[in-house]
Amino acid sequence: MEELKTKAIKGIEKKMEGVEEGSYRYHVLESAKNFKALFTLQKK
Prior knowledge:
Layout: H1 7-17, H2 24-43
Helix pairs in contact: 1-2
């Protein structure tokens, strides 16, 4: 199954690249990405 990636999700992933994985900011970005992905699936 092909992963759906919107412009917003790609932008969040790009921001996540420069952040340490265990940091608070990383977890916030990851949560935002998960929310966007869920919202995108519900719209279809």
